[in-house]
Design a protein that fits this description.
344 residues, alpha/beta, Four Helix Bundle (Hemerythrin (Met), subunit A), Rossmann fold, 2 domains, seven-stranded mixed beta sheet, binds 5-S-methyl-1-O-phosphono-5-thio-D-ribulose
């Protein structure tokens, strides 16, 4: 297992973000030296994936504090507030963003003197803990796969979407090493093609056999091939176990139930939003029409029409067989079972 790609690195006094829009053709790291540059990168999908967005936001707070403290050692706490508000609004669905900001706020409230070293320490810990959580989830998730065979995954949930190793892709990595997963079917994931550009790239680098399918081939795949598990990540999980994830996840869950295929969601507890009781309260990001009206590489469709481009959907808990977190596995998720993850 190589798993040598890292989307987020802190080097010297700048944040390096792997520009995921350019993959797999080019591997270019952008130097991010201000909170505004970090916000622009999150919005433009330079960095994407719920845990990776949270980690980036944590480092962005370090950049903001550095500049605000230089501006005024007395008033930096007041000045940084507007940066935190802008950061929180960069993308609406992944709750890891506000989770990371809350952790950083705890340090901001407590610190005396130069805030940069303790904030950097906190960001580093958020980053490192995410990788550890992914490795733990890899083992928990792999244990659920009883019969060796191919699995289906959606979007990108690997090292690129996290601090490293990945959530759903982490389970696939661990299960492949244990010979529980023999091959992966990856959806293209329109319109940004996180599946064909990112997931396929990560799996190929690790020598894990991967076959691409169009998003619309998934139900037919389940009918035609011996798929035992669909394994996906999450952007936000409500207290009752409803899961927001990349658009198309709900389709997969419906098709999986129809075909008797198990459905696994893999996400760290930082993705669970206990403040919202159900998926109805999850804000679903809608992005520009142009993202789906034109796609590089082939002719555009009809022009001068509208488009609806929700980039996430919400899968009801009743269609999910297992939610895997670093605190344990929740089978057939309910509010009580999810809550127990936090009371162990
Ligand atoms: O729009 P994106 O690429 O940020 O969406 C990413 C996803 O939906 C992932 O499945 C999710 O963040 C889980 S990543 C570990």
């Amino acid at each position: 297992m190589i798993d040598d790609v890292r989307a987020i690195e802190w080097q010297g006094d700048v944040l390096l973000l792997l520009d995921q829009r350019q993959l797999p053709k080019k591997t270019i790291y952008l130097e991010i030296d201000s909170v505004d540059a970090a916000i622009a990168s999150i919005k433009a999908l330079v960095v994407r994936g719920a845990p990776a967005i949270g980690i980036t936001a944590a480092y962005a707070v370090v950049l903001a504090a550095r500049s605000r403290y230089r501006e005024s050692a007395e008033r930096w706490r007041e000045l940084i507030r507007e940066d935190l508000i802008k950061l929180a609004a960069a993308r609406p669905t992944a709750v890891n963003l506000s989770w990371a900001l809350q952790r950083m706020q705890g340090i901001i409230d407590a610190v005396d003197g130069d805030p940069v070293p303790p904030l950097f320490g906190e960001a580093r810990q958020i980053h490192e803990n995410d990788i550890k959580a992914n490795q733990t989830m890899g083992d928990y998730g792999a244990d659920l796969i009883k019969n060796p065979g191919p699995v289906l995954t959606h979007c990108n949930t690997g090292s690129l979407a996290t601090g490293g190793y990945g959530t759903a892709l982490g389970v696939i990595r661990s299960a492949y090493v244990q010979r529980r997963v023999t091959a992966v079917f990856a959806t293209e994931t329109r319109p940004w093609l996180q599946g064909s550009r990112l997931t396929a790239w990560e799996l190929q680098r690790d020598g894990i056999p991967v076959s691409l399918i169009t998003d619309s081939a998934a139900a037919w795949l389940m009918q035609q091939k011996p798929i035992e598990w669909v394994i996906v990540g999450a952007d936000r999980i409500a207290a009752n176990g409803d899961v927001a994830n990349k658009i198309g996840t709900y389709n997969l869950a419906v098709a999986a139930r129809r075909h008797g295929v198990n459905f696994m969601v893999v996400a760290p507890t930082s993705t669970i939003d206990r403040d919202i009781s159900s998926g109805e309260q999850i804000p679903v990001e809608e992005r520009a029409e142009t993202e789906i009206l034109g796609t590089a590489g082939y002719a555009e469709g009809v022009v001068d029409i509208g488009a609806w481009n929700p980039v996430f959907d919400v899968t009801p808990a009743s269609l999910i067989d297992a939610i895997v977190t670093e605190n344990g596995v929740v089978l057939e998720p309910t509010r009580d079972r999810i809550e127990r993850l936090f009371t162990k």
